[in-house]
Amino acid sequence: MYEPLFDYLEQRFPLSDDDKAAIASVVSHRTLKKGEFLLREGDTARVGAFVAKGFLRSYVIDNKGKEHIIQFAPENWWVSDKSGMNPDTTASFFIDAIEESEVLLMDLTGHLTLMDKVPGYAKSFQAGIQKRATAKDTRIINSLTATAEERYDDFIKTYPSIAARVPQHMLASYLGITPETLSRIRKLQSRKR
Amino acid sequence: MYEPLFDYLEQRFPLSDDDKAAIASVVSHRTLKKGEFLLREGDTARVGAFVAKGFLRSYVIDNKGKEHIIQFAPENWWVSDKSGMNPDTTASFFIDAIEESEVLLMDLTGHLTLMDKVPGYAKSFQAGIQKRATAKDTRIINSLTATAEERYDDFIKTYPSIAARVPQHMLASYLGITPETLSRIRKLQSRKR
DNA sequence: TCGCGATCTTGATATAGATCAATGCCGGCG
DNA sequence: CGCCGGCATTGATCTATATCAAGATCGCGA
Q: Chain A residue with minimal CA distance to B154?
């Protein structure tokens, strides 16, 4: 059950059997049906969820009722809880399953335990955070300056497997364009080549 | 000389005299004239710079030669180096001083030392990273969906002191709009109220 | 203090993309 | 197996913002 997570971590640093036991003891497993929400249950501050199987997405709904996808999360990705999202934000935050999925949940306590006990975990976590920060900067600049078509091409090139897997209207939502526009872009491109 | 940084950190966790000495020993001081660049010198992997006085900005120049401001950094902010920016990115990255400034530079070695030696530093660093990640998500969604005017209003509300301090064309660059458009927005609003 | 380059403003036009509306398509549910 | 509802496509407009082009104004440096 925990194998996908172990594999993922072992690509980043070596994992002893003790480490594995420690990890298994702090994550909890959960199955999600297609369309099901991953809600924050109780008061446990969740750090994130590791997608062992399937496909999730996180998104917000703005005050005009429109949905904006923040992140896609296929197997071997982390979806982070919006722990600390601006409290005065009018938008509401959701995570749900695009396909039937299995996730491993980690709360803050567990995370701190691993930071402390598992050698390599802290550095690896930190590296991941940093990498993501850079990706976000890139996305910001991209969204501010590239055209719809450029953003689409970029996405296709960077995440071909995700592009092939999500419905078009969700991709449009991620890219910040309407489904109609995305459809037209695709048509133009299919003609061109 | 290090006081601004000590003050900053002490608002986050207590700092002993030993801690202060450790910090002082790993950061280096530098003065920047208006318009001067903060370049990566030598091979030392820099983590970031703390702005003790003045005002910096980080920005990229895209392949069309246009400048896009990523971050403004007034006193008591960190500017992070793009440590790990996508290597295949065509854009070039810069940091320079908008006003005469003083910065405290920290490299990776120093950072790791503090992570290890100064209690509270690691947690505080982590908290900062997290907060910034959230801010970036917000900015992404904002840039994808809000109008130019909404983005402007938002910025004014969130960072009034920065808005008052930077030239308009830089604010326009940060917001991803042209100086002309920003000028028109301001005119409309001054009329309205 | 003067003058010139940088910055800001204002106007006219062009255009990418949104919106509104209709039609077609296909896949799962009864 | 057939029908219905979400999804994609296509077309016709509309609108926000970019772009191009002059002026106007400000402020710094000689």
A: A89
Window B132-191, strand C contacts by Cβ < 7 Å: 167-169, 179-180, 182-184, 186-187
Beta-carbon contacts of residue B41 (< 8 Å; ≥ 6 apart): none
HSE of B112 in the Cβ direction (CA atoms, 13 Å)? 8
Quote the DSSP letter at residue A37: B
What's the pLDDT tens digit per position in A177-187? 999 999 999 99
Q: Is there a contact between B62 and A140 if contact means CB atoms under 8 Å apart?
A: no
Q: What is the DSSP letter of B40?
A: -
The pTM of the full predicted model, rounded to 2 decimals, is 0.86
Provide the CA B90 distance to its chain's centre, in angstroms.
Answer: 22
B176 CB less than 7 Å from any atom of strand D: yes
Of A85, A144, A176, the CB nearest to B145: A176
Task: For residue range B3-19, list pLDDT tens digits in order.
Answer: 999 999 999 999 999 99
**Token code pair at residue A76:** 């071997």
